[in-house]
Description:
Largest sheet: 5 strands, parallel
Number of domains: 1
CATH class: Alpha Beta
Helix content: 40-55%
CATH architecture: 3-Layer(aba) Sandwich
Order of helices and strands: HHEHEHEHEHEHH
Distance between the termini: 52 Å
Structural class: alpha/beta
Radius of gyration: 23 Å
Number of strands: 5
CATH topology: Rossmann fold
Strand order of the largest sheet: 3-2-1-4-5
Amino acid sequence: MNNALIFQRIKQLRTILKRIFLVFGIVFIFLIALSFTDYPYLMYHWLGTSECKPVTTPEYIVVMGAGGLPGPESLLRCYYAATAADSFPDSKIIVAFPVEDDDFEGSENESMVIELQKRGISAERIVSETTGTNTYTQAKEIVHLIANKSAPILIISSPEHIYRCIRTFRKQGFTEVNGLPTFAQSTSDDVFYSPEEEKGIRKRTERNVAFRYNMWSYLQYEILVMREATAIAYYKVKGYI
Length: 241
């Protein structure tokens, strides 16, 4: 290969890399701009509520596992599950979290069960699903725990996960599936400003809540939505939903 051809290939490679970096730059700027709007939260909220309907009395409350405990997602799901269990005292609770080598003791599944018991839920009401390793396989395994597919089910999971959960369980034949998204309680912006700032006497840029908190939270929502959109697309291609 002569030098002229090598230089030509290098030039072509540089052109390709420039175009790639340009595309990534445009996408990055777009995502930053989007984080100053309400759209990331609205998309996040849609994933958590679009498939939900008014909660009727469930026979089963399914708590989807999420990482280790203690952890923000798992604690939120246990909190919501305990609250729902108090509201529907005749319901059974299914904790779905895989257990390695059938060693239940000390597992994340057991930790969630213990957390529910600490919140006043009787051990007799709780059943663990320990085999499924993702939403699809967990739904398949729960089929064996719920004989009646028309029994009302309430799924508790993170907001961005609810849409895929409900659609997956319906695909497995369950006809009465609802969801309870574990939205975290928001904090009023007023607590971040002094009385003088709230009156508009002075509001410095570094004290602006949009820069300090909202933008970063909305960037996280964008990541969650994009990740979940990828998972939903994969589930549709595989026929899981």
